[in-house]
From TrEMBL:
HAMAP family: ATP_synth_delta_bact. GO terms for molecular function: proton-transporting ATP synthase activity, rotational mechanism. It is found in: Cell membrane; Membrane. InterPro entries: ATP_synth_OSCP/delta_N_sf (IPR026015), ATPase_OSCP/dsu (IPR000711). PANTHER family: ATP SYNTHASE DELTA CHAIN (PTHR11910). It is a peripheral membrane protein. Coiled coil: none annotated. This is ATP synthase subunit delta. One of its GO terms (cellular component) is plasma membrane.
Length: 183
């Protein structure tokens, strides 16, 4: 793990290496793919990330393992060089954080925003699409929706876009009524 500010600096550096929006998407896909592979655990065995970050193995051995993995994954050459650079700096354990920061920055440059839509029951696709369209009109950005179910909401939906929460749940409305009756 590395501090968030350092992860942002590494992510920004990789982002600046992308010459086009398509290349930016490829970099994001490749670094996320590496994180998925490197973080996978088998029962009783360390993950690739654990091995690469371990002091129990010689640096040359760990570098050779990383190079083999990068070759087999056929990642973009720039991403592969970037991951080797991060390894050489002793920051390989921070790649998941770097990948997360990269995804956020790339989304911001592409005009995409993540939204979490929580409802009491699974919503039909057309309802989700209507909510998505309304959020896109309100924000002027492309919305990437993640749906979740929380039966405690009773009814309605709660949508979080960035740090803004739109709470139209029955649970909240009942709570507001209760508070107004008390006061």
């Amino acid at each position: 793990m590395i501090p968030g500010s350092l992860a942002r600096r590494y992510a920004r550096a990789l982002l600046q290496l992308a010459d086009t929006p398509i290349q930016r998407e490829i970099f994001g896909r490749d670094i996320a793919s590496f994180v998925r592979v490197a973080a996978t655990h088998e029962l009783g065995k360390p993950s690739l990330m654990d091995v690469l970050d371990s002091g129990a193995y010689l640096v040359a051995e760990r570098r050779a393992i990383l190079q083999k993995v990068l070759e087999r994954m056929s990642l973009d050459a720039t991403v592969a060089k970037f991951l080797l650079f991060v390894f050489e700096r002793g920051r390989i354990a921070g790649v998941p954080q770097i990948a997360g920061q990269y995804a956020e920055m790339s989304d911001a440059l592409s005009g995409r925003v993540h939204a979490k839509l929580t409802s009491a029951r699974p919503l039909p696709a057309d309802a989700v699409n209507k909510i998505k369209a309304a959020l896109e009109r309100a924000t002027g950005k492309t919305i990437l929706i993640e749906s979740a179910v929380d039966p405690e909401l009773i009814g309605g939906v709660v949508t979080q876009v960035g740090s803004v929460v739109y709470d139209g749940s029955l649970k909240t409305q009942l709570g507001n009524i209760r508070n107004s009756l008390r006061g």
